[in-house]
Design goal:
The chain is mainly alpha-helical and 508 residues long. The protein has 17 helices and no strands. Helix content is 79%, strand content 0%.
Length: 508
Amino acid sequence: MRRRAGYQRFNVRLGQRDRVFPFHPHLVRRATPTFPSASLAFYSIMFLRRLFDVFLESLSGEEKDYTAMAMRRAIVLLSIPMIMEMGMEALFALVDTFFVSKLGVVATATVGLTETLMVPVYSIAWGLGMGITAVVARRTGRRTREGARAAAGQSLFIALVCGLVLAVPSVVFAPELLQLMGAEPEVLAVAGPYARLMFASNLIVTLLFAMNAVFRGAGNAGMALRTLALANGINIVLDPLLIFGVGPFPELGVQGAAVATTIGRTIGVIYLLYNLFRKDGFFAVSLPDLRPVREVLVGIIKISLGGIGQFLIASLSWVFLVRIVASFGTVAVGGYMVAVRIIIVALLPAWGMANAAATLVGQNLGAQQPDRAARSAWWCGHYNMVFMLAVTIFFWVASPWIVSFFDQGPEADAHAILALRVISLGYFFYGYGMVLAQALNGAGDSLTPTWLNIVCFWLIEIPLAYVLALPMGFGPMGVFASVAISESILAVLCGIIFQRGKWKTVKV
């Protein structure tokens, strides 16, 4: 006690006030240090320790009340696993592209064209997940566990139906779909078996996205992260073994990438279903919960239709962009596909922040705190904008080095570098736009972003890309510029509409 009192008197003599260390839960007395380097080291250690504690807490999977804790803390705890989850999702396409690119431009174009055809499937799965997250988050915010379990059961039912509807026709008509995308004969010969297996996995993709959305809406983003880490780990190990035929594994070439990805995602879905049905889990879903319940189904479908519309509009516009790029040859397509895979790595973590905003908005509206919901969305937008600016700088400086990992040849690499640099020019605005659009979806207002997507992507982006690339003669760069321009306009419109606040009155 005498030592503590003397320490306080020392502070008073120096005219200093006691301050609260901002990254540690306890009070830390701050006196003028005798050795500045030692003091700096102390605070650095305390800062890193606090960050590590927050990181572990965000991944713990424990139930938390995000509507009552400090807002910045809620954003950090939710966004860390969601950002990592989106990064894990990006790894699927990136790892496949990395290994397949070693087989040549034709193999890369095969993966790129197939993934392009699966973009509408991802869009439907994303949109469905958007509705699921909004409904589960709202019911979680109301503290109604029975309602959250009912929403989880109905979400699984919808995912099963949608997955089957998406898988069967695409497998049957796989060659015709590839021809519509302008696949050249040498690409079509390789892409047929690969595309059929990937299209058959549409059921798995839909289940994976839907079940992750269930846990994300309940605030347990760590579950989705662990699932994708498991699935990705399996995919990363199996990819080179099956593509190149290492050891006892057969050499399947491009087909090996499809087999590895499907196995990894299937095991991830099994893990999710186990935790969804687990008796001591948060949801503890049982088979009777899968019986259709009209009220719950209508709520999920109503929001999901808007979300599906948004992603279909955006993804179909991207399909048209790929078709325009394909008019400049397979090399241009290969370079563009590599750039898109790299961009996904940057955008999906940013989407993690946007998903955190959606969950916070939904839960706070359920807890009757609309002003807190609005503030959480704007704060997420601020953080996301800073991150996206850093990505823009990184792309401009390091794009040649990044693209060199895929080793497609100088001409294809040049297209990829140009795409990265030009498209990233719109990231300043898009950092806000993706967050505010997801915040509107989290509030249940999925119709407004849908109309905005129609205007910006179909009425602006596609015509602008065509005019710049072909009549005006800018080539692929015209396509890349249209992406940056349209996404910037979308972000500004989202900000204006979100500020008006009509989303606060939406009923879910």
